[in-house]
Amino acid sequence: MRIRLVAASLAVSLLSLPAMAQDKVGIAACDDFLTKYEACVAKMPSASQQATKDSIQQMRAAWKAGAADAASRSALEEACKSSSDSMKQATASYGCSW
After folding, report:
1. Which of 49, 71, 90, 94 has a 20 to 30 A CA-CA distance from 36?
2. For residues 83 and 95, what is the distance between their CA atoms, to the nearest angstrom?
3. What is the pLDDT of residues 9-25, one digit of tens each?
4. What pTM does this model have?
């Protein structure tokens, strides 16, 4: 019985993780940015949370496609670093950790 309870708790915990957070871009700077940005969403006003989640999902899909092209990987890495710097400033008032 206890094993079932632990297994059920673990399953619920895994299901509560953002689905897209498990889908990596494959470039460390991009994955780091997206992870931190996703964590920041909960600190944003509720009215903007869904739009931000949608934006993150679109970024992840575009960046993942770009990461598949060896010729664009270095430019994409720089874009992710730049995005991180910009978002750090833009979300400072929410108390997000970057």
Report:
1. 71
2. 17
3. 444 444 444 454 568 99
4. 0.75
